[in-house]
Structure formats: structure tokens, C-alpha cells
Amino acid sequence: MIDRPNGPNEEETTRIVAQIERHMAELREEKTLYAARCKPLHEAIHDTITHAVTTMGFDRKALKVTVRQRELVRKMERLEDDLDAVTQTALDRLQSHLGHFADSPLGRAAMDAARATSRRRKPNPVDDFADDESADAAE
């Protein structure tokens, strides 16, 4: 930062603010274009989920949570793949000190809530199919 006793003058202030506003306008345009490009993909995802729920009996929330969890696991794996050996060692040490999430009070509460939710969840036809196959195999 430049040390100026009186700070920027009016002309400099106007120029910098105008430059920032131009960049912000360009950013808004880019966001609009991005949203327009993503809209068909969002619609396809919505249609796929709706089809799975209405015609195949999937639970909407369970399906969306499963997809999101898998996405987060892949993101975590990519983060760890980019670590060098020293940082990986430090990460392993931190994680061992913190313990597993499911062992923490918050983790236990989350696991209890997930178990309670799974008991209230409507049956998944895929589970019934798997039970039928295992019964057939037992005969």
C-alpha cells in the first residue's frame, strides 16, 4: 500500500470505482451466460430425479442426498490426491487427533437422526427386489 498523507484524489477515486464497476458488470454478464448454459443441465437432472421418483419408487430426498454425498466424497478424494507427502502426513496426524466424525457428539447426533429418518422412510422397491433374490438363492 502506498503511504499518502491525503489519500487518493477525486480523479483517482472516480477512475478506480468506475473500473471496478465495469468489472462487476462483466462478471454479471458472465454469470448470466453461465446460468443460461447450465439451465438445460439443471432441467435434465430435475427430470431424471422426477422420473426415478414417479416411475421407479425412489425417495426424492434420499436420492438427492446420496448423489450429494458421493459428489462430496469425490471432492474430498481430489483434495487429498493433490497433497504432497509432508502435508498428507500432517493431515493424517490431525485426523487421528480429532478422531472419526461419527465418534464425536455431533457425529453421534447425526447418525442417530439418520437412523430415525431411515425407519420412517417409505420402502424402496430396489430393497424388495434384493430381498426376493436372496430368498430365491436360499431355496
Structure commentary:
- The chain has 139 residues and is mainly α.
- The chain has a domain of 41 residues.
- It contains five helices and no strands.
What are the main properties of this structure?
mainly alpha; 139 residues; 0% strand; 5 helices
Q: How would you summarize the topology of this molecule?
A:
Blueprint lengths: L9 H47 L3 H22 L3 H14 L6 H16 L4 H14 L1
Give a short summary of the structure.
The protein has 5 helices and no strands. With about 140 residues, it is an all-alpha fold.
Q: Which bin fits the share of residues in helices?
A: over 70%
Largest sheet: none
**Order of SSEs, N→C?**
HHHHH
Low-pLDDT windows of residues = none
> How large is the share of residues in beta strands?
under 5%
For the residues shown, what is the average pLDDT? 81
Helix count equals: 5
Shape: flat
For the secondary structure, the number of strands is: 0
Radius of gyration: 26 Å
Compute the separation of the termini in Å.
80 Å
Coarse structural class: mainly alpha
